[in-house]
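### Sample
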Amino acid sequence: MTDSDVREEIMLATYEALCEHGYSELTAQSIADKTDKSKSLLFYHYDSKEELVAEFIEYLVDWFDERVDKTTSLPPVDRLATVVDWFLYGSANDTDKRQSFHTAMLELRTQAPYHEPYRENLRKSDDYLRELIEDILQDGIDAGQFVDHDTEEMATLLMATLDGARIRQLTLDRDSYVDQVRSAAIDRIFDDILADDVDFPETRTQRDGYTVTTETAVSTDADTDADTDANSDTSTDTGTGTDTDTGTGTDTDTDTGTDIESNTTSDTN
C-alpha cells in the first residue's frame, strides 16, 4: 500500500469517526477502529490527533477542488448556482451520516481560535472558496451574464450569507431556513448583478439540460464510490461537502463551507 493509499484510508476513517462520534468525542482510537491499523500506526504518520484533523481539513479542500473542476463546462450562472447549493444543501440526497458530519465540522470550527493548525487550514479553505466565487463572478462578467460589479465584495457577502444560513440550519434544525435564504438571495442579491436576459436557476441539481451532482461531503456510500466521493460540500458540498461544508460549508459538504464551507463550510459549508 502506497503512502497516498494509507493517507486516503486514514482520511476516510476520520470522516467515518467524525460522523459517528462528533469532534468532541473524536479520538485516535475511534479513527483507528475504522481502519485495519492500530492507534500506534496512526501516530507513526501523525504526531497528534490535532495534526491528523488539520490534514483532514486540507484533504477536504483538495477534494472540493476536484469537484469544482467538473463544473467548468457549465455557464457561469449555472456554475455559481451549483456552488451556492453545495454551500446550502450539501448532497442532493443528504443522509443522516452527512448531516452528522456537517455538525462535527461545525464543532471543529469552534476549536480554531485555540488551535493554530485548524485556524490556518480553515483560513486557507475560506480564501479558496471566496476566490472561487470571485473567479466565477468574473467569468460571468466576461461572458455577459453578470453586470460589472466588485467581485471581491460580492464574494465576501455571499460567503457570509450562505455560511450563516448553513450554521443556523444545523444549530436550529430548521431545514426550511436554507430554502428561504436561497430565495431571498436570488431576489435581493443575484437579481442586482444578473444581465437583463439572464435568470438565476430557481431549482437545484437540474439546470438548462445540465445534470449537476451536489455532493459536498466525504462519502463511502456505494452510490458515490464510482465518482471518487470519499468526501461534500462539500458536500463539499462543502461543504463543501465536504459535504463544505467544507462545514465550511464546505464542507467543503464548505460546507463547506463551505462551509467547505464549506460547507468552510464551505465550508471547501
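The radius of gyration is 17 Å. This sample (TetR family transcriptional regulator) is used throughout the tutorial notebook.
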